[in-house]
Amino acid sequence: MEDLGSGLLAPLGAGLESEPVVGRSLQEGADVVTMSGDKLLGGPQAGLVVGRRDLVDAMRKNPLYRALRVDKMTLAALDVVLAEHEAGRAESSVPVLRMLAADAEAIRPRAEALAAALRGRAPRLAVEVVEGSSAVGGGAAPTVDIPTVLVAVTHPSLSPDRLASLLRAGAPPIVARVADDRLVLDLRTVLPEEEPSITDALARAASLDE
Length: 210
Description:
alpha+beta; Aspartate Aminotransferase, domain 2; four-stranded antiparallel β-sheet; 20% strand; Aspartate Aminotransferase, domain 1; 9 helices
């Protein structure tokens, strides 16, 4: 048995070339592979078991299976994501894989546009577009960083930690990082239609001490 964790079904670039692929483990002789339905597979949070039919069937017959099986909504979501993988569309249609595949230079124009919007809405903020890195995640490829472009923000009287706390407490909540004593936003993980919400939230936060 091998636990792959990430659930990666097809090789990825972006520094993830060495991340193990489920099919390869099975081809190399693993009888059973366990993996996540989320992480690099890109589906709902779930635990998956694949491998030899006789072993998997034995697990399904065990009374413990009834206590551990996921609900129908999770199965439906997982079915949709697996269909995208089977059709070869996952890298463009599954959000986590699309985000990982995004080139830093494709993110730069969006970062510059957001920075310009912030300067117009919240002139007290010092806003820069800087080079940075995206973390893949603690549960999948925790040591891999992907080059990206960040929007770095500082406020004359509110600390970066305070700004981050205000964003998390807002509606909708926004999770940002603090690095080099600045609040940083990585648009790799933000949908274009969500960017106005970030501008609004930071503009509100910047005015709180006035």
